[in-house]
Design brief:
By secondary structure, the protein is α/β, with parallel strands linked by helices. Helices cover 43% and strands 20% of the residues. The N and C termini lie far apart (80 Å).
Length: 285
């Protein structure tokens, strides 16, 4: 009888020891996420942790910077980017597992202004007027920065491009910092994404670009990072990103759930992602 009691006690303590050891040793899921998806991703991660009891760490930033971090550190489980061409580069470099790539939401470029539009900015050419303070994302490392430069290069004259460059007060390192410029009224306008008013409905207004001024839209994509040490959990998280609960979160922040929604808002079918290099002459200040 005594031996049975001792065995039971020993089994209990060994079980506790191994369970604790597992809990301590379990690595959090590490996500590298483009800053353009920061607000919905914060809600998504919170919900995922509540439902699965899995700890998730997220590193937000410009996708160019995140790409370099993954390559150098050879760490991470899930990559989230705002465009297929960026994911394509990650695939070519062997950074992501090709058959894990999925679309999660769609985004379109626009002009974002302070709520109420105090400078009455109505068109792209209004950004060239004297005294208008413009903020841009660094086109060398931020997707919306490259799109903004492409839009200005294709739709403004040489004189207008010179004027708008004189109005640009800063180039920032990621989309979240770009959004902050307009929220804190440090600039009058930015070239950003359509959903920003969904992030800050009381602080940001949206001015649509002409349909002809837009060459492409972005498609948020996700994939498992090749260096993952937790493929099963990474797959589970990506499956969660495709769920109805997550689609509801994206709708809450005004992201498009399909290309048809995005094209209706833009006014025509456009290229989705795609390679482009229109940043020559636009330098980081």
């Amino acid at each position: 009888m005594c031996k049975k009691i001792l065995s039971a006690v020993l089994f209990f303590f060994l079980s506790v020891f191994f369970m604790t050891d597992y809990a301590i040793g379990k690595e959090p899921l590490l996500i590298f996420c483009g800053a353009a998806f920061k607000r919905p991703m914060e809600d998504i991660v919170k919900l995922y942790q509540q439902e699965t009891d899995t700890k998730v760490d997220v590193n937000y930033g410009g996708v160019g910077t995140l790409f370099s971090q993954i390559l150098l550190s050879k760490r991470g489980d899930v990559f989230v980017v705002p465009s297929p061409d960026i994911m394509g580069r990650a695939k070519t470099k062997g950074v992501v597992i090709p058959d894990s790539i999925k679309d999660i939401a769609f985004v379109a470029p626009c002009i974002n202004v302070q709520k109420g539009n105090p400078k009455n900015i109505q068109t792209l050419k209004d950004l060239t007027k004297p005294g208008i303070k413009v903020g841009l994302a660094n086109p060398e490392i931020v997707y919306i920065g490259a799109i903004a430069v492409e839009i200005m290069e294709k739709n403004l004259s040489t004189a207008e491009k010179k004027a708008i460059k004189e109005n640009v007060v800063t180039y920032v390192e990621d989309f979240n910092k770009l959004a902050t410029l307009i929220v804190l009224k440090q600039v009058d306008a930015i070239i950003g994404f359509h959903f920003l008013e969904g992030w800050y409905p009381d602080k940001v207004g949206t001015i649509k670009l002409k349909t002809s001024e837009i060459s492409r839209i972005g498609a948020g994509q996700t994939a498992v990072i090749s260096y993952t040490g937790n493929r099963t959990e990474a797959d589970k998280f990506i499956l969660f990103l495709l769920s109805e609960d997550v689609k509801t979160i994206f709708r809450k922040y005004q992201y498009f759930g399909s290309t048809d929604e995005a094209f209706r808002w833009v006014g025509a079918r456009k290229i989705i992602g795609g390679e482009f290099t229109a940043i020559e002459g636009w330098v980081k200040k």
